[in-house]
Amino acid sequence: MKDETYLTGLNASNSPRWKWMPGMRYIVKRPDPLEPITGRVPDQMRGWTPYRGAVPDFDDPATMGCLLALVRKVIGDPGLYVRLSDTTRKSDGRRAWEVLGWIAASRSPDGRAGSFRGWGYADEAEALVATLNALPAPNENKD
What we know:
By secondary structure, this protein is an alpha+beta fold. It has one domain (3-140). 26% of the residues lie in helices and 24% in strands. It has three helices and six strands. It has a three-stranded antiparallel beta sheet. Helix 1 runs parallel beside helix 3 (124-134) and helix 2 (61-75) packs parallel to helix 3 (124-134). The longest helix is centred in the middle third of the chain and has 15 residues, at 61-75. It is globular. The protein starts with a helix and ends in a 9-residue tail after the last helix. 25% of the residues are buried.
């Protein structure tokens, strides 16, 4: 797992809106020379939390699919999508990832409904995690 992917996973797992879902792959880094602990959240274990210090492995396609489903559920838009834009980032010259969707007023940080666009992210996971973290914590939500 790349360091950037690990940091994105750490950022996600520390979000108040984060939820482990069945099928997600996790990783727990350990000091050298020990190998990291890896595994999947079991299907039968809803609400189960992996080892302490576990972060989601966003190099895994199933975990990415679960992240997309989680963000769609939290936002309330089943049509939310992520794409690689045609615009390059000034910071590194790479094409930027963006998230596009619709948010209900009751889920919006400013209390207004409307379309939104998050732009400028280095990868798909970073774009979705930033969207998840931009929303108010569950107890701050009006619904």
